[in-house]
Amino acid sequence: MILEQTPTPDNIVDMLLLLASKHGLYVGLRETSSLEWEQVLEQAAYVPVSYSQAMIDYQGAYFGGLSKAWQDCSLVLFNDRKPCAVWPISLALNDSRWSISSAGDAVVGPLFSQRLSNKSVKSLVTACAGFLNAFATQMGCDIRYQESFRDSDGLSEWYLRTVQEAPPKAVKHDLYIDLRPDLNSIRGHFRKSYKPLISSGEKLWQVAVSCKSEPSVWEEFRLLHLAVAGRETRTLQSWDAQLQAIASQAAFLVCLRDPNGRMVGGGLFHITRDEGLYAVGAYDRALFDKPLGHVVQYHAILEMKKRQLRWYKLGARAFLGDEPQPSAKELSIAEFKQGFASHVFPRIELHKAYNQVES
User: Fold this and answer.
1) Got the DSSP string for 132-159?
2) CA 11, CA 27: separation in Å to the nearest integer?
3) Helix, strand or coil for residue 347?
4) How would you classify the pairing of strands 275-283 and 311-316?
5) How far apart are CA 302 and CA 267, in angstroms?
6) Is 323 exposed, middle or buried (0-12, 13-18, 19+ CB in 10 A)?
7) What's the rounded Cα separation, in Å, for the pair 77 and 82?
8) Which helix (H) or strand (E) holds 84?
9) Cis status, amide bond into 291, omega within 30 of 0
10) If DSSP codes are grouped into helix, strand and coil, which group holds residue 326?
11) Dihedrals φ, ψ of 104, to 5°?
């Protein structure tokens, strides 16, 4: 099947399912196999936030507002008629060129159920690689792949298969906090200057953790973000998706208020059974010299400890030598996050170019 320059969602889905079948894959789309997706997550050894349906929905709303066309192509893989893996894949059209990603970022590999044998994992990985190669060729896409932290013993089977065809192009870095030690041990990794700032901040601000849908509170946070940014940076649909994530227990909001009850800072954190992720923050610029972010981060850690999460992903650690060159703001944010981190893990990016099939 050869697609026209601007295919419809139905054409994309038809081609996707046809190519999967040709490569021996039995799959279902996430949108029609949501329960099976959750079943696989329950059986996985470790669930990164990037495999959360709430995160995929948010990213779809976010990038859908930036792209000419956007299609969630995320798949549930089946083995012996049982769901055995989930794979976040999306397709976007920008500047007349299609790109395949995992919710807007470099493509990640399938996440497998622990109940699947190693032999079956290897077989499915080979089939998935063949399928994705065919899909990328059909769409004329270059693909960036990534191998990132999954709390495992080493590189995944997906990486070992992919690296044979797509050479590593860059090494990025991600900041994490191991949440399994006791709180004193976690605090022991904090930058020395942060501890008194947290203590003084807790005296200045009223701290609240919102774990359920509170539209009025969420609107305060959105408007604070708007005031700080000075413009609308994303669609209302993306904000609604994050509010829904809170409602479904896939995220929580930490907010700070001054003695008059005015919201002066806050942070949203996406979560799975195993992992937390710092998603978005907003802090009153007039209070830049006051400890706002320090208190939000600390109470997010307390909430993640309460939920017995294993790791907290603070985000990327930018360095001066990175390509593209990070901005001063990105370096400053990275330096701030580094002050909480207990671990820095590499994220390997790989790249492969494809030639589009001619019609």
Assistant:
1) HHHHHHHHT--EEEEE---S-SS--HHH
2) 17
3) strand
4) parallel
5) 14
6) exposed
7) 8
8) strand 82-87
9) no
10) coil
11) 90, -10
Cα–Cα dist 185/342, whole Å: 10
Query: What does the block give as tokens for 136?
Result: 């990328």
Question: Are both 9-170+348-352 and 181-309 of the same fold?
Answer: yes
Here the tokens at position 315 are 């985000």
Tokens 């109470």 sit on residue: 299
Cross-sheet strand order for the sheet of 111-112: 26-29, 75-79, 82-87, 111-112
Tokens encoding 216: 């009025």
Q: What b/e string do you get for 69-88 counting C-beta neighbours within 10 Å, with b at 16 or more?
A: ebbbbbbbbbbeeebbbbbb
Say if CB 75 and CB 87 are below 8 A apart: yes
Pick the CATH number of 9-170+348-352 from 3.30.1890, 3.90.25, 2.60.40, 3.40.630: 3.40.630
Looking at residue 248, its amino acid is S
Q: Read off the pLDDT of residues 148-193 as tens digits, 9 standing for 90 and up.
A: 998 887 899 999 999 999 999 999 999 999 999 999 999 999 999 9
| Fold that domain 181-309 belongs to in CATH | Aminopeptidase (3.40.630)
Q: What is the pLDDT at residue 3?
A: 46
Cα–Cα distance for residue pair 126/158, rounded to 1 Å: 8
Q: What CA–CA distance (Å, rounded) separates 318 from 327?
A: 9
Q: Per the confidence metrics, is the pTM higher than 0.85?
A: yes
Q: How confident is the model at residue 83 (pLDDT cuts 50, 70, 90)?
A: very high
- Residue boundaries of the structural domains of the chain: 9-170+348-352, 181-309
How far is the C-alpha of 36 from the C-alpha of 289, rounded, in Å?
48
Residue among 224, 215, 235, 193 nearest 63 (CA):
235
For residue 148, which of 316, 328, 319 has the smallest C-alpha distance?
316
